[in-house]
Automatic annotation (TrEMBL):
This is Pyrroline-5-carboxylate reductase. GO terms for molecular function: pyrroline-5-carboxylate reductase activity. The keyword Signal does not apply. InterPro entries: 6-PGluconate_DH-like_C_sf, NAD(P)-bd_dom_sf, P5C_Rdtase_cat_N, P5CR_dimer, Pyrroline-COOH_reductase. It is found in: Cytoplasm. NADP(+) binds at I10, G11, A12, G13, S14, M15, A73, V74, K75, P76.
């Protein structure tokens, strides 16, 4: 278990599930250390209790008060209501970690009535298999120990970088949303393999192993991606034919635009949440 005894999630959606399953399946964290609170859908809590053995809290307020770490995992549009509904139970002896895209720490701090340590995190769903790329930044009242605890939590389910809050929108566009771009690529490659005459299962196997192999090459050889690409590309060969087609269809530009758009969307999501005190 990381240096934090009790975690309470507010919001029981995809991200909360990815985080808690990552912690339960890949670290010594026990289900009895995790509580999850959801707005209305109690089926979701029952599903999480059944699948992961977490205890459905009888008293939500007590679950929040007892937690060392509260993880805010609601949609950006629901953050004001969630803070107004639950914020009165937060206290300075705990830390709040928000994974909510676009919502600034000053907004959260100003919405709360007491000086509570707040940390903003942008993980991705790969935390479910302890492979998240997470970025963290800290608020005004967060100590080194608070950052250290958040670092321990997220580094137990992937890698962690600490950034300035101004970079969180870029992080969200790149690695927060990033798994979806990769899954989209996989869907396209599989489809391409099938259209080229392979069976779906062979196409999937070859696509996934090619992806995993390329990721391992990048991480283990530490060679530049352009150099690794060069080694695959024989002059006048098959790869060159494929890459030329990708360039003609603006493959790199499309990805750059996708990350820029996602970054911009993260900024927009936060815009209507001004950090002025209520
Ligand atoms: N899905 C992803 O890949 C990632 C999501 N995030 C962020 O995580 C947050 C959650 O995203 P998802 O899990 O995908 O959304 P989701 O819609 O699946 O889950 C949000 C949950 O919050 C609950 N909720 C809403 N208001 C509440 C309240 N007042 N009290 C208690 N529960 C409340 C909803 O009932 C819902 O179950 C978002 O802010 C998103 O930006 C961050 C990184 C990656
Ligand atoms: O799509 C979204 O808004 C969230 C934030 C990062 C990944 N999913």
């Amino acid at each position: 278990m990381v240096d934090c005894n009790q975690i309470c999630f507010i919001g029981a959606g995809s991200m909360a599930e990815a985080l808690l399953s990552g912690l339960l399946n890949n670290t010594p964290t026990s289900a009895k250390h995790i509580h999850v609170i959801n707005r209305q859908n109690q089926n979701r809590i029952q599903y999480l209790s059944k699948k992961y053995g977490i205890i459905s809290p009888k008293d939500n307020q007590a679950a929040i008060k007892q937690a060392d770490t509260v993880i805010l995992a609601v949609k950006p549009k629901d953050i004001t209501h969630a803070l107004d509904q639950w914020g009165m139970y937060f206290h300075p002896g705990q830390r709040i970690i928000s994974v909510v895209a676009g919502i600034s720490i000053p907004f959260i701090e100003n919405r709360l009535t007491t000086r509570i340590p707040v940390i903003r995190a942008m993980p991705n769903t790969s935390c479910a298999v302890a492979q998240s790329a997470t970025a963290l930044c800290t608020g005004t009242h967060a100590s080194e120990k608070d950052l250290d605890t958040a670092f321990q939590i997220f580094s137990s389910i992937g890698t962690v970088v600490v950034v300035d809050e101004k970079d969180m929108d870029a992080v969200t566009g790149l690695s927060g949303s990033g798994p979806a771009y990769i899954y989209y690529l996989v869907e396209a490659l599989e489809q391409a393999g099938i259209q080229a005459g392979l069976t779906p299962s062979i196409a999937r196997h070859l696509t996934l192993q090619t992806l995993a192999g390329a990721a391992h090459m990048l991480m283990e050889t530490k060679e530049e991606p352009a150099e690794l690409r060069r080694k695959v590309t024989s002059p006048g060969g098959t790869t060159m034919a494929g890459l030329e087609t990708l360039a003609q269809h603006h493959f790199q530009k499309s990805l750059i635009h996708a990350v820029q758009k996602a970054k911009q969307r993260s900024k927009e999501l936060g815009k209507s949440f001004s950090p002025s005190p209520r």
